[in-house]
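Q: Joint fold for the lines below.
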Amino acid sequence: MTFAGWLTIVLFAVILTALAMPLGGYMAKVYTGKRVFLSPVFGVPERFLYRLLRVDPERGQDWKQYAKSLIVFSLAGWLVLYAILRTQDAFFVPHALNPLGYHSPPWNVSFNIASSFMTNTNWQFYSGETTMSYLTQMIGLTVQNWLSAGVGIVVAVALVRGIIGRSGKSIGNFWHDLICTILYVLAPLSVLVAIVLASQGVIANFTNYLVVHTITGLTQTIAMGPVASQHSIMLLGTNGGGFFNTNAAHPFENPTQFTNFFEMLSVLIIPAALVFTYGRMTGNRRQGYAIYATMMVMFLGAVIVAYIAEAHGSPAQHAAGLHTGVISGSGGGNMEGKEQRFGIAGSALFDVVTTVTSCGAVNSALESFTGIGGAVPFANLSASEVIFGGVGTGLYSILLYVLLAVFIGGLMVGRTPEWLGKKLEAREIKLAGLGILVTPLAALFCTALAVASKAGRASISEVATSAGKLGIHTPQAFSESFYAYLSQANNNGSAFAGYTGFIQPNAGSVGSHGIGFADLLGGFDMLLARYAPILFALAVAGALAGKRVTPAGLGTMRTDNGTFVVLLIGVIILVGALTFFPALLLGPIVQGLTGHLY
Amino acid sequence: MKRDIITSVIGIIVFTVLCGLVYPLVITGAVQVAFPGDANGQQIHLDGKLVGSKLIGQNFGTPVLEKNGKVKEVKGAVVTEPDPRYFQSRPSATEGGAYNAAASTFSNHGPNSVKTKEADEENIKAYLELNTDPTTKTEYDPGLTVAKIPVDAVNSSASGLDPEISPANAWIQAHRIAAVRHLPLATVDGLIAKYTSGRGLGFSGEEGVNVLELNLALDRLKEGTS
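A: Joint structure:
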């Protein structure tokens, strides 16, 4: 561990907060229909889009109508993306946009990819540079990077509207919210981030792959493509699907020490800002601060553990005789699957940033993280993406936990639970409880199926090679499988990437086939764990929207102070630990504690 | 319902055009004009020929020849041995040979895996061998032992294309370069310092030495080249 490493972590938290607060205020204005400085720029296109899409932005929708619009729109997006993937090599695709003539991925892999990008998961069994044409990356994957991010954000906004709604059933208009999100939030940020990244070396071109003749007489082929535009929105929308296989570890996606820091900020900026948006919209900024504090405490805890564990090095390194401490000119630590320019701190921090959010972009190989270092992303996912979380998903998920915490707090003090002046009753608690439980249940159920069946075990890469245990599945094999379905259920998309669902012996899907079990199970895992919680969150919004507000009395439990932060952290950890601890013991924890080699 | 379907279909078409065509084309066009070098991968040319990208690491090995003079291949990948006259990059786990920039990948070896230990041991052996004078059987860098090898020289990178090595790794290899090329060690260390990238904003990440730039600079030195 180094001073610079700790400084990176501290400054990251400070700079993030300083940037997120004003953005949160800006977004609150956007979603409450106030004029913002970008209104003169986007006012005309906004009205044009309403006319084109034939929507009346003023028409309020109740939660069922809102949900219906959202589901129909998502389904349409899924069908279009699936069609694009399956026609990648069709005659109408111009050669310049598929320069290597890549074929379409098999149907089962395409099913997984379409579900993955529509649900903001961006789980990738494929590797970008050997599977996708430039056109597919643009009109297929990039588009869903925008839309899935937009859908996540509008659900959070709708839930907040329900919470603060004074009368009636309306929780806003889906189309108005979506168009405003894309124009006023995602578009300006994404252009800005793309330009900054490109100025540092993130590539943006449509040229053929380069062929290089090296000074020692070898040939090297270098993949190219329109990376900057896709990479920026995939960070901002906490999508996480890399243009290239190694994602943000690839030098063309994350070229320097500076871009690594900048990219981490890009990932967390919107999820962090939305918490402040929530505070502003409720009319009591302290409500937002309390949730922000909850998230930040858990976030920093995760970072500290990951940094210490990775700086310590792995059992395999120590067995080989390596010294993993800091020496002059080297930061030491577990550098297997990590890039020199990011070092241990830059890799551990990035890892936590992208696993607390639903981003899932990686700048290092999670499978090669130490047992305890690898347990951190597990723990982050086990907390169901409420520590900042995905854009929108993080806020609506933690608000369901807030509801639960208020309920538990109410039981403790023996009063009817009240939240922001609204009495919480059986219906809301039931809906919130279900919304919280879907994701863990989907993850555990799918993992159980995958490790208990032969078809599921076909995806595992990690088997013991040591004498006497040859071919035995190791704790790492369990970790791989568990992480796969946990990550997909949380719509995260990061991977212990040994787990595979796509066998592609040659580039361009020639002679390739999918592992149907993993592709389909994962696809359904993502769809269920994305849309069921969205429906429950919108239903909660609907249930709360019509409630009368009663002024807070002496006995009302406050939700904007330190006591509540502690209670909320306790509830999140309790739910996560009770659900996942037995499974976590079988994989990462046993490896982290024993140091045994397999 | 019908209304939602119509709006959704129009919406998907409109957003596909806006976010999938207009946005990437505008960004790519703007960046091509503003930062042409960066947009095209920071290509490095030597005598008019493309010798690499500054950002993409390379394998500085030479092809191993079979007895019949043919280049030796295993599973379609050219077998190479490190060229002692050049600084060597980190181990790379890409398939189809090290530093295959058409298919980036990492090793996916677990922290408690025997495979990781064996790969580490193999890389340690190769590193010690490379940095030992074959005639005198002594290390170029006196006192070089397993415990002194920096981790980045042994562990494979995340992208498999890491363009940089740690300064500590470069300093050890500098002894070999100086001896093989008959250069003063100070000259080589000076070049290392010149091609070392600093921490971002002064704190982010680790210092790294760009191996391709360093090797090209070595070749440009007239004096002492054998």
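Q: Anything notable?
A: The radius of gyration of chain B is 23 Å. DSSP finds six helices and nine strands in chain B.
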